[in-house]
Amino acid sequence: MIPFLDLKAQYQSIKSEIDAAVLGVLASGQYILGEEVARLEQEFADYCSVKHAIAVNTGTSALHLSLLAAGVGAGDEVITVPFTFVATVSAICYAGARPVFVDVEPVTLTMDPAQLEAKITPRTKAIVPVHLYGQMADMDAIKAIADHYRIPVIEDACQAHGAQYKGARAGSIGTSGCFSFYPGKNLGACGEGGIVVTNSDDQAKTMRMLRDWGQEQRYHHLLKGFNYRMDAIQGAILRIKLRHLEVWTEARRAHGRRYSLLLGGSANLRTPVEIADRRHVYHVYAIRSRDRDQLQRVLSEEGIQSGLHYPIPVHLQKAHADLGYKAGDFPISEAAAREVLSLPIYPEMPAWHVDQVAAALENTYVS
Ligand SMILES: *Cc1c(COP(=O)(O)O)cnc(C)c1O
Q: Is 133 in the pocket of ligand 1 (CB under 6 A)?
């Protein structure tokens, strides 16, 4: 059996450090926010080369607060892509705004800058590119258009901890950048978690208030806020894990490159492309094939788990039918949804698993 992901392997590799950190929080009596979370914020801000980080309870909350801090509200439009996890779009709805989709470009499956400008209206209040699978969107092209219209860019970096674009970290290019610490993400908590990074003093201050009931001083509520605070146990665990993130990221990249080496010559599938000057952190290693369902069946028969990220683009989800989109509106996203197949990848994965998965895929073409 080859698992898609093995969270227990990561825990076992740093068990003594994690156990000590958790016990420390239990003994401290400080269970929400507090010193561990404040230190995580400083360390994560440093990691991303930004001024501020605001820790929250999920990546979705990070997106919600970023949108609110950028001034997005009822009646506004926010441009994003339909080929993403649904949370990107839900956060826009939470803010009371209308999601407006632009298709992805076919190589990286991230926001197509060539189609962006046509979607901008006087109501457009933010643009949310998604750094899908761990590779950043074309930020220069997106920023050039956004800056021309003075529209803030909010990076959905929930899959892209440590990714880079021309040397700049994910989250550091836009007005703000949002990360998830869901357990399966590249930097994962042992529970829920998220964080926003920004260089804006004003927006950081607003988001700090909004995550904690809109207060700076207890029981003095200046804004209509939320309970989006991070638990101290998650903060302590994430601080430990952040110290290992670069090594884990390099392990992911090595697995990704080995897959591409072994599968690069296959006639019936396409391997992901690493764009020059972008550091891909392989949250997901997704191949593409017209025979996707058959490949997944064959892998499953060989005891190899795989995933689909994502089988239905958001504009075709029932939950968002009210937006009025229909099949055919975003052909690149729709083709990707039919063709992508995510192979097992995680830092602790033994290299021979990569070889075994690649061999199983090769065999499907012989038969
Ligand atoms: C995981 C994810 C989110 C949401 O993060 P949660 O912590 O699960 O709320 C948002 N956007 C993308 C692209 C994601 O992968």
A: no
